[in-house]
Amino acid sequence: MARPPKDDKVTKRKMVKPSASGKTTPQDTHTRLDGSQKSILSDDGQLDGPVNRLPKELILRVFSFLDLVALCRCASVCKYWNVLAHDGSVWQDVDLFEFQRDVQSPVIDGIAKRCGFFLKRLNLRGCQHLSDEALKTFAFHCQHIECLVLQECKKVTNATCRSLSKHCARLRKLNIDSCGLIDDEGLILVADGCKHLEEINISWCTRITEDGIRHLVTHCKHLRSIVAKGCTNLRDDGVRSIADNCPDLTQLNLFNCVEITDVGIKLIGKQCPDLEQISLSNCPRVTDDSLLALANGCPKIKTLELSGCNLVTDFGFNALCRACPDLHYLDLEECVHVTDATLVNIATFNHKMERLCLSHCELITDDGIQHLARSIAATSGNLKVLELDNCPLITDSALDVLQQCPSLQRIDLYDCQQVTRGGIRRLKVQLKNAKIHAYFAPVTPPPPNQGPRPRICRCCSIL
């Protein structure tokens, strides 16, 4: 094929800022193939090209889709783009998580004053140097904020909650995960001023009790998601308040709320029919009665986490699997009484299952895995993740039948003593795109050969 003719208009560009004097420098040019040079900047230091002929509103719209790093790069292209990149309308969504170590209070002050009422979403996760004073300035200038993430901001106290209550009435999503200095007073302040809250995360705020949660749910009638991991002061009375006041609840996470019992979960099952995600992991008092209540009242459940609930059995899962056909994530880690009967029910009724955790379910055998695999193959199931670590009865026979499941993307087989390297090798041949995680303890080396035992002379034996 012949090469196309050279066009002297084809150029190589090197885009940099103009000099401080505003005049074009050799760096502000591009070079034609014939060696001549032409400025890429106009006389006033602006980028000379078709992009700048677009309406200002259209360029701002394009900029609004850029992340923080890309926006800052655009600001260094030319004077015109610098002005546009600093326009508050393109700073509606700011995520500072990647810069958490460098974010100081003056940065938040600058963002607040630049963005003003345009800012809708701000992620300050992990910014541990932030003070209540900086967030007070932020709340005053950004009163249209809708989503605020303060996760792991260790210095945040009730004073920030007071500022949000006073200025941020439009707040819909608030994450104060691991803000350990916030207590019931702060939660009450938020509830009084931010009545449009839909999602709240108070995980590991160990000073918050049932009193704060009761005030929250009675004043914020639109709550759909409550995440309260590690809130050890939350008991059945608090769960009763949630059930009585949050009929539209779709997500409830009570991970490690060790005082929760069947009494509270029964109320959730009775009064929250739209529940889709619930985590009861490390709630050791939960039994089959909770599963029966969820089966009877919450047929829309898609995600159920029960890790460490060692009192649940096949009886509860029999009812749950039948009543919740949309289940796509089920975590049964350390549910030690679960047997193959539960896998038969999953294979029969839960064809939308995408992730199944059976770690430390020591009664699961090859028969249960075979039922599951054959169902997936027959119904074109979509199981992507299967966790089987520390299942001592699983053998290579289970791996052979899992070869029929092309949807699998990850299989965990840590400490499955009867699984061999050969079985894993055959599985990898069939599921080439799947990540198979396994661990084999190193073989104990034989004792060193010490040679023939030395002969003992007659005098030594006498002695």
Written account of the structure:
- With about 475 residues, the chain is of the alpha/beta class.
- Helices cover about 35% and strands about 10% of the residues.
- The chain has 17 helices and 17 strands.
- The protein has helices at about 55-65, 70-75, 80-85, 105-115, 130-140, 160-165, 185-195, 210-220, 235-245, 260-270, 290-295, 315-325, 340-350, 365-380, 395-400, 420-430, 460, and strands spanning about 10, 30, 35-40, 95, 120-125, 145-150, 175, 200, 225, 250-255, 275-280, 305, 330, 355, 385, 410-415, 435-440.
- The strands form two sheets. A 14-stranded parallel sheet has the order 4-5-6-7-8-9-10-11-12-13-14-15-16-17, with no helix packed on it.
- Strand 9, helix 9 (about 235-245) and strand 10 (about 250-255) form a beta-alpha-beta unit.
- Helix 10 (about 260-270) runs parallel beside helix 11 (about 290-295).
- The longest helix is centred in the last third of the chain and has 14 residues, at about 365-380.
- The radius of gyration is 31 Å and the shape is globular.
- The model is unreliable at about 5-40 and about 460-463 (pLDDT under 50).
